Input
Amino acid sequence: MRFLGFNLSLDTVRTPADLQVFNASGKALRDRINSVKNTQKITDAMKLVAAAKVRRAQDAVVNGRPFSENLVKVLFGVNQRLRVEDVDSPLVQIRPVKTVLLAVITGDRGLCGGYNNQVIKKAEVRHAELKKLGLDGKIVLIGKKGITYFNRRTDRYDIVGRFELGQAPTTKEAQAIADALYSEFVGLDCDKVELVYTKFVSLISSDPIIQTLLPLTPQGEICDIDGTCVDAADDEIFKLTTKEGSLSMEREKVKTDTSDFDSSLIFEQDPVQIIDALLPLYLNSTLLRALQESLACELAARMNAMSNASDNAKDLKKKLNLKYNRQRQAAITGQIIEICSGSSA
Output
């Protein structure tokens, strides 16, 4: 791995530049050791900053839970009242698919390993699959890295929107993105909206996935492209903790109570109208959660990348110190031999 111009990997084949360093003078080795020390300090600091930001992302998810739980409760309760009634909402309208809109969530910054490349590759593969099926594909980009990549390939991809992710996604940002997706779907510019983002698994693992965002089901289920649906009442939250002196991540299953409303409860408005008003809120909530989870994946990937860089810098510093000490010892031994030879003569 190259970081700040230095080769910090010990497993790669040495280049002529590396051999030149290891055969350099004592002063050159000292300069290189000091340079690697400074690099290690930078990577250690970036790791700690990323860990602090992961905790803030965790707090944002936890703070948004009460709203999400109550929204799911109302959505399920109203659906139980409706039973077999059809919901006349544009967000649940299913029509023949001719155009698919991909909302691709990447990061705004680099130095996070292969995180951004994995999401971009997933989007490209999905776009190619749609073309093979004879469907048109459009893309909405969320995150600077994705914008930079696809802006260079506008001849191959139809870009209809660009948004920055930021370091702390808010409801306002999610609302702006949801409005753009809503306009495309309701305006019949696309027949399906798919969300391409990274699902948080652990500090060292993340999984780029594709979920169908629109059309929604009346129950608020989220389905992937294979038709596997996740109940809106089943959720997970991640928690950054410490275990045996090191950082670790735990996922906690959260089950929302979706018991029926009291049978004596009277709706002032038609339940269909209530669901029609709730579904856009649920869309915004789902999108905000995806933004928060993508940010957590980016920060965890950066923590892992900086940790690896620090370890490689530590190993390289040890190797350079060994080489420097050997060279220094050889020089001292040579001087002693010269003095002894001179005195003997």
Notes: Residues 271-344 form the longest helix (74 residues). Residues 1-13, 227-242 have pLDDT under 50 and may be disordered.
